[in-house]
Amino acid sequence: MSPLDRRHVLxxxxxxxxxxxxxxxxxxxxxxxxxxxxxxxNAGTSQPGTTSRTGTSSATAAPAVAPAAELPFEIRSGPxxxxxxxxxxxxxxxxAIARSLLTEAERAGAKITVMAVGSWLDxxxxxARSVLxxxxxxxxxxxxxxxxxxxxxxxxxxEIERCAQRLRQLTGSIGPWFRxxxxxxxxxxxxxxxxxxxxxxxLSYDLDSLDYTDPGASAVTHTVxxxxxxxxxxxxxxxxxxxxxxxxxxxxxLQQRGLRAVTTSELLS
Length: 269
Fold this sequence. Notes:
Structural class: alpha/beta
C-alpha cells in the first residue's frame, strides 16, 4: 500500500470512530450513569426480588431503578425539577396496620420505601414479601432500633450488619439504603460502619411527618402537604393507625399538585 493510500485509510478510520461517538450520544440527551453495586456485598441490590443464597424463597418485585452514581453519601432529598416525591416508612409495629397502609398505597398506584427494623423482620418475615410484591422497596433501619449514634463503632456495625443479613436471607439483597435509627443523619462513625456493611448511601429526609406522635390523621396530612415539594423525602412510620388514615388524603393532595409517590431509587434515578 502506498503512503497516500495509508493516509486515506487512517482518515476514514478516524471519521468512523467520531461518527460512532456521536451516534452513542443520540440526539444530545445525556446518559445518566448509574451506581454499580459492590459485588461482594450488594449483589442484587438493584433488583430486590432475587433468589436468596440461603435457599429461602425470596420475594419478587419489579426491578428497582439504580440511583445515579454521582449522589452524595447522605441523601436528604431528590431533584426539585421532577414530579416525584419519596414516602419513606420506618418498618416496625403491628403487621396488620402495615398491610393496611400497603393496601392504601397500592390502591392509589403509589410506591413507597420501607426502612425495615431487623427484629421486626425476625418476628414477621412475611412482611418482606408483602412489601416487595407490591413493587415497593426495602432498606435497613438497624436490627433493634437503638440510638445508634451513641454506640461504639463495632456495636453500630453489628446493628447494621445483622439487619443487612436478615434482609439478604429474606430477599437475596441487603437493600439499596441504610437509615440510622433514632437519628436523622449519619455521624462519621455510623457512616463508616454503613459503608463497611456494604451501603453506598445513608438515607435521611427533608420532611418529618411527625406521625409517630399520633397527632391524628388530619394533622399528619396537614404537616406533609404544607411542606412537601418536588423531590421531597418524607419520613413516616408503620404501626400508627393515624398514618394509614392520613395516607389517602396525602396521596390525593400530591396528585393535585402534579406529584407522584415513587420509591427512593426511582426518585433519585
